[in-house]
Design goal:
Blueprint: H1 3-6, H2 8-49, H3 54-73, H4 79-91, H5 97-103, H6 107-113, H7 119-132, H8 136-144, H9 147-152, H10 168-173, E1 180-181, H11 195-204, H12 206-213, E2 217-227, E3 232-241, E4 246-256, H13 259-275, E5 285-292, H14 295-299, E6 309-315, H15 321-342
Parallel strand pairs: 1-6, 4-5, 5-6
Antiparallel strand pairs: 2-3, 3-4
């Protein structure tokens, strides 16, 4: 073997330098182009507002601009894309935090995000796309499955991100969804679906499951054994949440939630805290992921007041947008009625 061929560290280092440089160049070019599209959108809006018959003038303006830009710069300047640039500027008229995040994402990401109705939703998808490194395909799924709205439905009229006086329960709720959508498993919602079958499917597609769980979750173990002096117990799935700094135990139930399920999870969490929790860890969270749940039972069980126990439904098939929105609204109303009952 030659001396040069043995010097693999040197070659790897040079390759890494070039890879990082190319990635940086792509990001720089992307940022410059997003800024250019924002500025074009701004000029289109200003020009249209200066026209006497704005609607008709705007249509002719975009058609002529598309024609001239396409002649000089090639594809990418269709009337539809010019409308996107105009909408991009209108959804982000100032160069604040939303603009900064937008410049760090691709134009395809921005075209999806800017169509969201609320500033809050747009900001959420911008932040998460950047933090979680969502691909365009994954972002499309997150928007289609109403991820922001599902998170919002578990919160009780509190600004989770800016509040400095959150209880432990509120911090946990800010990370949970209801329902969780597991359509990527391609499982049939049969009455005889076994919990082990669901567990295996989740492990086999762990990357997508982690994306659905949300930021902060890292996988620890499946069927983790915890033992007392006389008995052994097996926990379906165990994760660690590095933002909340605690273990998360997930118990899978392919049937409707029962009192026995809640009692079992209560025991699991107490045992885990006693036997596995580290000195620097926050109290363990237990999530029962079930096919369905009776809200009256939830209201009058330990789930109502517990800082550590939660129940969420899962769906094996993606419902229509109307059905999903209706389910989210029901969850929000349930939480609101529970809050009013405490007054």
């Amino acid at each position: 073997m030659s001396e040069l061929s043995e010097n693999s560290d040197f070659f790897s280092e040079v390759k890494n330098i070039l890879s990082q440089a190319r990635a940086s160049a792509v990001r720089s070019v992307n940022s410059v182009m997003v800024d250019a599209y924002w500025t074009i959108g701004q000029r289109i809006v200003e020009e249209e507002q200066g026209g006497s018959a704005r609607a008709q003038y705007g249509k002719r303006l975009l058609e002529e601009l598309s024609h001239q830009l396409s002649d000089d710069f090639g594809s990418g300047f269709s009337v539809a894309n010019l409308r996107n640039m105009r909408q991009f500027y209108q959804s982000c008229p100032e160069k604040g935090i939303r603009y900064t995040l937008s410049s760090e994402l691709s134009w395809s990401h921005n075209c999806l995000i800017m169509r969201e109705d609320s500033d809050e939703a747009r900001l959420y998808y911008l932040k998460e796309s950047k933090a979680q490194n969502w691909s365009v395909r994954e972002l499309k799924r997150q928007i289609r499955t109403q991820t922001y709205q599902r998170l919002l439905s578990t919160q009780q009229d509190r600004d989770i991100e800016t509040s400095t006086e959150l209880t432990s329960r509120e911090r946990i709720l800010s990370q949970l969804k209801d329902p969780y959508l597991l359509e990527f498993l391609n499982l049939k919602a049969e009455p005889h679906l076994q919990e082990r079958e669901l567990e295996t499917a989740l492990i086999n597609d762990l990357q997508k499951f982690l994306l659905e769980l949300g930021g902060g979750f890292s996988f620890v173990d499946r069927q983790m054994r915890i033992s007392t002096e006389t008995s052994h117990f097996y926990l379906d799935l165990v994760f660690y949440h590095y933002i909340l700094k605690c273990f998360v135990v997930i118990d899978l139930k392919t049937k409707k939630l029962s009192h026995q399920d809640v009692g079992q999870m209560d025991m699991y969490v107490r045992m885990f805290d006693d036997l596995k929790r580290g000195a620097d860890d926050n109290p363990t969270i237990g999530i029962i992921l079930c096919a369905d749940k009776d809200e009256t039972m939830v209201q009058y069980s330990v789930l109502k007041e517990s800082e550590q126990l939660f129940a969420s439904k899962y769906r094996l098939h993606l419902p229509s947008e109307e059905m999903l929105i209706a389910e989210i609204e029901r969850e929000k109303k349930r939480l609101q009625s529970g809050k009013e009952g405490e007054v």
